Amino acid sequence: MKTESVILSIAFLLLFPFVLKAQQKYEREYRIKSEIIPQSALAFIDSIGPDSKVKWYKEISLNGVSTEAKFKHNKKKFSVEFDTLGHIQDVEFIIKKSEIINAAYVKIEHKLDSLYQKWKFQKIQKQYKGKPKEIINSINKNEPTDSVKVSYEIVLKGKVVGNTQLYEITFNEKGEIQDVLQIIQDNADHLVY
Known about the structure:
Helices cover 28% and strands 41% of the residues. It folds into two domains: 25-91, Nuclear Transport Factor 2, Chain: A (Roll), CATH 3.10.450.360; 95-186, Nuclear Transport Factor 2, Chain: A (Roll). The chain contains four helices and ten strands. The chain is globular, with a radius of gyration of 19 Å. The termini are far apart. With 193 residues, it is α+β, with helices and mostly antiparallel strands. Strands 1-10-9-8-7-6-5-4-3-2 form a ten-stranded mixed sheet.
């Protein structure tokens, strides 16, 4: 019995970094030139018609490598993420908390109160996932079509047992929690936009 406990303890210690990794977020972004961006990604951004110059970034995270376009459109800051082949992963744009559907916001607030002693929003983004044409239609109409999946990605400072950390929490359109990640900060490598 004692041997089994020792083996289980060792197994847990060996697996702990992998469990911890799944609950953390680290991103490193750096600027890249548009000449190396896949044509499909360039065409998608052109179809939106950004109001500002598009800045391209390579993003390295715990989940892999992606390409990201950042720009302004209709007075909102957009971030569009593509895989390395130029296939769209998601579109995010910064919103105010008043732009979250009221019923969803009430659920979000209640959940955050149950998770943290204190919390404060740092950034709120609305996220669209779906087929490229449907996402473009949603952006142009300033309202998601039925076939676009909507989420809220919230970065906040949260205090738990005297320890304040940055977290990224994703909620679905109904305000139900989907994912909680503790952000590993590296101010020199991470751009908040």
